[in-house]
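Record 1 of the preview.
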Amino acid sequence: MQNLLLSPLYDPTLVQPMRDEVSALGVKELNTPDSVDEALGKEGTTLLFINSVCGCAAGSARPALRLALAHDTLPNQTVSVFAGQDREATEQARSYVHGFPPSSPMFVLMEDGQVVHAVPRHHIEGYTAEQIADNLKGAFNAYCGEKA
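->
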């Protein structure tokens, strides 16, 4: 019997357009645990997007990301990992997200390496891209940009 844990979960050719959709927005893709540690260890604000092949990622999460990144107030950096593809990077990213069960897709806003806002899958499924983007924009307004 084949060991499914050692085989890749998704065909890289199938996943590439989903990666490209996010990269085209200026989001830095993290493929290794070291790249995750470097990005999430930076001072300032970071939006982490845990990308996925599921329907709610395609129909709501990635479109919401596009809408949210058109906002006037943005995090210092936006990064992503791809669940089901870059397993080690995704596990490392999830190790920073305390208090939330693993989910994908998922948005996590961090400030100085600490989670300040999260939008897990159950707040993506059944919501429109506009509703999710408004949620993210509200978090950007609260935690990003100039502080008084």
